[in-house]
Design brief:
- The protein is an alpha/beta fold.
- The protein has one domain: Glutaredoxin.
- The chain contains five helices and seven strands; from the N terminus they run αβββαβαβαββα.
- The protein has a five-stranded mixed sheet with strand order 5-4-3-6-7. Strands 1-2 form a two-stranded antiparallel sheet.
- Strand 3, helix 2 and strand 4 form a beta-alpha-beta unit.
- The chain is elongated, with a radius of gyration of 20 Å.
- It starts with a helix and ends with a helix.
- The relative contact order is 0.19.
- This is Cytochrome c biogenesis protein CcmG, thiol:disulfide interchange protein DsbE.
- InterPro entries: Periplasmic_diS_OxRdtase_DsbE, Redoxin, Thioredoxin-like_sf, Thioredoxin_CS, Thioredoxin_domain, Thioredoxin_ResA/DsbE_sf.
- Keywords: Cytochrome c-type biogenesis, Disulfide bond, Redox-active center.
Length: 174
């Protein structure tokens, strides 16, 4: 009898792991950077290439870093929401233009609107790698001390904005 119970128990445990694993949301991959200082950067601005922006320029304020590209189909999905968010003035949104051509990025922003306080250029994707970018779009909430507090993988949705991002921003601004 015991010889049948051990394989049965192992099977039940395996099924339990599969059920739990299949229930995970792949968009909620935990980032090792949450709770750690945002990686430092000094990158050219998209609109004014003679100027740069550094990660330290935003110390003292809560801000969002949105990783985007003109070739990104999902970026179009979230873009109207980012434009609305920028107009609200709740939190500054900075863009990290990822592995893109400057002319394409400028044309894209002209066509769809520019929600970014400043957009910076990461043509080789090195800064994106430092931030652990899996793919675009991704959005980070960064606190007043320059610490990453949240990472949205994939397009920002109304639900993510209302239930996660904005409540966290308000808490951090408070």
């Amino acid at each position: 009898m015991t010889r049948f119970l051990i394989p049965l128990a192992a099977f039940v445990v395996l099924v339990g792991f599969l059920v739990v694993g299949l229930g995970l949301n792949p968009r909620q991959v935990p980032s090792p950077l949450i709770g750690k200082p945002a990686p430092e950067f000094q990158l050219q601005q998209l609109h004014q290439s003679e100027k740069t922006l550094t990660s330290k320029d935003n110390l003292g304020k809560v801000w969002l870093l949105n990783v985007w590209a003109s070739w990104c189909v999902s970026c179009r999905e979230e873009h109207p929401l980012l434009v609305q968010l920028a107009k609200s003035g709740i939190v500054p949104v900075y863009g990290l233009n990822y592995k893109d051509q400057r002319e394409d990025a400028l044309r894209w922003l002209k066509q769809f609107g520019d929600p970014y306080t400043v957009s910076i250029v990461d043509p080789e994707g090195r800064t994106g790698i430092d931030y652990g970018v899996y793919g675009v779009p991704e959005t980070y909430v960064i606190d007043k001390n320059g610490v990453i507090r949240y990472k949205q993988i994939g397009p920002v949705t109304v639900d993510a904005l209302q239930t996660k991002i904005l409540p966290l921003v308000k808490e951090l601004q408070g």
